[in-house]
Design goal:
single chain, 256 residues, alpha/beta, six-stranded mixed sheet, three-stranded antiparallel sheet, 8 helices, 9 strands, globular
Length: 256
């Protein structure tokens, strides 16, 4: 980890979505006649404050609906905070889902070019990385096939290979290893460990606790958009596992 300024700084960041804004035409007319509209607010991210250093592998855990995806969208600058202050220092390469940013009608090769273009890379730089991407993904015979014919595992391989070879200060991985085989998963984890050694920052989100424990030095636990715990990965994951075990017992669910 570097002594430089953090690559990500969040100060009381909040993201609010207004539910019920887009209703059927019939309901809209009824609401207008009645003089009121029912709009509910969802605080997907609620006053989060944290920082992430250069060269750090930072984990984020939480149940579905905890705010992980919204936070990643904020860091990726896909959406903006409703309030608070979020500072991002450096290019962000987000892999927020398997095949995200890819178009099914385009070939694997065309999608690599499209993805790099969206990141702002010049075409020549993209093509210079193409052979390395193809080799890493081990998809040479499929690169000129439309991606709609790829399996989810093939999409994950190409997504990860792009992230490995395109330059970025901050790389975000959201469950992208969930559909890969053990050999490729271990290769990716080794590559990510190399990222941090080079001073690049990794944000890693997974429901697989063993991957988070192996890879991340610090981890943040979210629930209902709020920060529950942040710190050493082993300590946070132990607390997270204990809380979920207690919840399972109280609800009568066998967690074995």
């Amino acid at each position: 980890m570097s002594s430089e300024a953090p690559v990500i700084e969040a100060h009381e960041v909040t993201k609010v979505y207004r539910l019920g804004e887009h209703q059927s035409l019939q309901r809209t007319f009824a609401a207008l006649r009645g003089g009121r509209r029912q709009i509910h607010e969802l605080r997907a991210v609620d006053e989060l404050s944290f920082s992430i250093a250069a060269g750090e592998c930072f984990g984020i855990v939480g149940a579905n609906g905890s705010g992980k995806s919204t936070l990643l969208q904020l860091i990726s600058q896909i959406t903006l905070p409703t309030s608070g202050h979020l500072v991002i220092r450096g290019r962000v390469l987000p892999l927020l889902a398997v095949g995200s940013g890819f178009h099914g009608e385009l070939t694997g090769r065309e999608n690599v070019i499209l993805f790099g273009t969206v990141l702002g890379l010049p075409r020549r730089a993209i093509l210079e990385h193409m052979d390395a991407i193809v080799e890493y993904a081990d998809l040479a015979e499929y690169m000129d096939t439309p991606m709609k014919r790829y399996s989810s595992g093939m999409e994950a391989r190409l997504s990860f290979a792009v992230a490995m070879r395109f330059p970025a200060a901050i790389s975000i991985f959201d469950e992208v290893l969930a559909v890969t085989d053990d050999e490729f998963t271990n290769r990716c984890l080794s590559s990510l460990e190399g990222f941090t050694a080079e001073g690049r920052t990794v944000i890693f989100v997974s429901h697989d606790a063993s991957l988070v424990r192996r890879l991340c030095t610090r981890t943040m636990w979210l629930a209902h958009g709020r920060l529950i715990a942040i710190g050493d990965t082993a300590e946070v994951m132990d607390a997270y596992a204990a809380a979920h075990a207690t919840t399972a017992v109280e609800s009568g669910v066998d967690s074995r």
